[in-house]
Each structure stands twice: as C-alpha cells, then as structure tokens.
Amino acid sequence: MRIATFNINGIKARLPRLLEWLDETRPDIACLQEIKTSDETFPVKDIEDAGYGVIWHGQKGFNGVAILARGESPVEIRRGLEGEPEDEHSRYLEADVKGVRVASIYLPNGNPQPGPKFDYKLRWMKRLRDRAAEIWAEEVPAILAGDYNVIPRDIDTFSVKAMQDDALMQPESREAYRRLLNDGWTDAILSRHPNGGVWTFWDYQANSWPRDAGFRIDHLLLSPAAADRLIDAQVDKAFRGREKASDHAPTWVELRGI
C-alpha cells in the first residue's frame, strides 16, 4: 500500500498536475494540503473520475486539506483540532482508509518570528501532539501526513545560513517536532535517508528548483503498527519540475500487509 502526502498549492490551479500524478503513480491514499478552495468549489467530480473517493476540509483562498482513497471513500473521523475553538483555519482532516488511520496536516508556517504567527504555530503543534497521543492509544496503523513547515535537522536544508532566521528552523519548532518522534512516531523519510539531502520543497523564487536549493518539510510520521510494515519512503521529485507545478513534490511511504 502506498500512502502519499502532497501540498498541491492550489488544487484548481494545479489540477492537471494532480491528475497526472494520480494516473502515473496510483497511490492508494493521497493526503493533500493547501487546496486553497472552499468546500463548495472543490473539484470533486474530477477526483472521482480519476478513480478516487475523497473528503475535504476547504477554506476559500488559502489553507485546506483533503484525503483521497483509490476505489473507495475515506471514513471521516475528525476535522480540525481541539484546543482553540476560535481557530477557523482548515488545517487538519483525519479518516479511516483501507485499514489505516490517516491524518492530512497543514501546519502553520509561523513567519514572521518572533510574533503572534509563530506563537500560533507552537500552540498548533501542541494541539497536534495531544491528538496524536489519542490516536497512539488506539494502537492502530496510523500515519500523520502533511506539510509540517518544520525543517527537522540542519542536513534537511540546502543552506542553514539561508534558513537560520526562518520559523521553519527555529529551536522551538524543531523541539516540538522532536517531541512527536520521542512519543514514538517514526519519521519515514528520515528512516530511509538518515544522512539527509532529501528535499520536498523548492521555492519559486531565486531559481531554487534549477539550483536544487530545497529543504524537507513534508513528513509522514508512522505509528508503531505502521512502522513495522514500512517497506520504503521516497519523494517523487521529478513532478516538481513539470510545467506549472506545485512548489512541493509528492512524498510517500509504502507499507506491507495492510
């Protein structure tokens, strides 16, 4: 079973690229972020015509997450995280799909830092950790997949100097991410590429893609029951180079026996 995460950076603008990727790679489950569309304008027919059932949590113009399942409909478990009732950002969607608990996550960017946006990012990460602990307690195969907007280690970026003041790489962001791993979640890409140098994002600015000036912020965290089934974890890097592509590349894990 292949489970992928893909920050699509606007599902209507990138729909041809998304459909190409679905057709060429046929993931069993795909978690999307930054769909940037309201619930009413989500292109559900195009997704269904591609052979996928889908649920989504939209927001006009920015944010928004979705979960796609090949040949069936995801069973929604939760949308949004508890802890801040006033938080109306569409950043979290959770479902049961094909015997796996899956969450599609779009974590706040946090820039500029320091400031209220960075404070919100850290609070959101605490809320995510609280929900992750609840999922953990169920002892089911589970994957927390998405754009975490965290560069976990220095070797996960093309340039420490270029990113040193960014919210993605602050000690507080990294520590919040490490707490998830210390709780027992497995970073799938890290487990297959411990020496780093694997990017999932290349900015549109500064000729970043041709220079391969990227960093790793799209992560798939596996519960023990999922980590025990891990076969591989990789990035579909070539899709970043296509015309009018997202600035992220799809990132995936493959699991056995589910």
TrEMBL record:
<keyword id="KW-0378">Hydrolase</keyword>
<feature type="binding site">
    <location>
        <position position="147"/>
    </location>
    <ligand>
        <name>Mg(2+)</name>
    </ligand>
</feature>
<dbReference type="InterPro" id="IPR005135">
    <property type="entry name" value="Endo/exonuclease/phosphatase"/>
</dbReference>
<keyword id="KW-0464">Manganese</keyword>
<feature type="binding site">
    <location>
        <position position="149"/>
    </location>
    <ligand>
        <name>Mg(2+)</name>
    </ligand>
</feature>
<feature type="site" description="Transition state stabilizer">
    <location>
        <position position="149"/>
    </location>
</feature>
<feature type="active site" description="Proton donor/acceptor">
    <location>
        <position position="147"/>
    </location>
</feature>
<dbReference type="InterPro" id="IPR037493">
    <property type="entry name" value="ExoIII-like"/>
</dbReference>
<dbReference type="GO" id="GO:0006281">
    <property type="term" value="P:DNA repair"/>
</dbReference>
<comment type="similarity">
    <text>Belongs to the DNA repair enzymes AP/ExoA family.</text>
</comment>
<dbReference type="GO" id="GO:0046872">
    <property type="term" value="F:metal ion binding"/>
</dbReference>
<feature type="site" description="Interaction with DNA substrate">
    <location>
        <position position="248"/>
    </location>
</feature>
<feature type="domain" description="Endonuclease/exonuclease/phosphatase">
    <location>
        <begin position="4"/>
        <end position="248"/>
    </location>
</feature>
<keyword id="KW-0479">Metal-binding</keyword>
<dbReference type="GO" id="GO:0008311">
    <property type="term" value="F:double-stranded DNA 3'-5' DNA exonuclease activity"/>
</dbReference>
<feature type="binding site">
    <location>
        <position position="34"/>
    </location>
    <ligand>
        <name>Mg(2+)</name>
    </ligand>
</feature>
<dbReference type="InterPro" id="IPR036691">
    <property type="entry name" value="Endo/exonu/phosph_ase_sf"/>
</dbReference>
<dbReference type="Pfam" id="PF03372">
    <property type="entry name" value="Exo_endo_phos"/>
</dbReference>
<feature type="binding site">
    <location>
        <position position="7"/>
    </location>
    <ligand>
        <name>Mg(2+)</name>
    </ligand>
</feature>
<feature type="binding site">
    <location>
        <position position="247"/>
    </location>
    <ligand>
        <name>Mg(2+)</name>
    </ligand>
</feature>
<protein>
    <submittedName>
        <fullName>Exodeoxyribonuclease III</fullName>
        <ecNumber>3.1.11.2</ecNumber>
    </submittedName>
</protein>
<feature type="active site">
    <location>
        <position position="106"/>
    </location>
</feature>
<keyword id="KW-0460">Magnesium</keyword>
<feature type="binding site">
    <location>
        <position position="248"/>
    </location>
    <ligand>
        <name>Mg(2+)</name>
    </ligand>
</feature>
<feature type="active site" description="Proton acceptor">
    <location>
        <position position="248"/>
    </location>
</feature>
<dbReference type="InterPro" id="IPR004808">
    <property type="entry name" value="AP_endonuc_1"/>
</dbReference>
<feature type="site" description="Important for catalytic activity">
    <location>
        <position position="218"/>
    </location>
</feature>
